[in-house]
Amino acid sequence: IDGFQGEEADVIIASLVRNNHSALSGGVGFLSERPRLNVMLSRAKRKLILVGSWEFFVKRADEAARKDPANPFHHLAIMFHELSEAVQRGTACIVAAPDRALK
Radius of gyration (Cα) for the chain, nearest Å? Predict the structure, then answer.
């Protein structure tokens, strides 16, 4: 993210893989920093692909966080709310990975 500031690309694939057992008050790494999240979300000209655990982020970015600007996950909650609405409009989609245990 830091090295891409000021740049753009037709397609951006961003890994949000943070599926860990941290307390609900943390565990999101650089995504807790609004300016860095903004850089990540604003570099794609045509398509942005986010890879990660939807459930992991939804637990942290809930409705209460979206309504409380003082909440450290406020900006994440807004982002996931907007993504959910885009899915409902058909301008975004969620592709679930098959649920299988690692062997």
Answer: 14
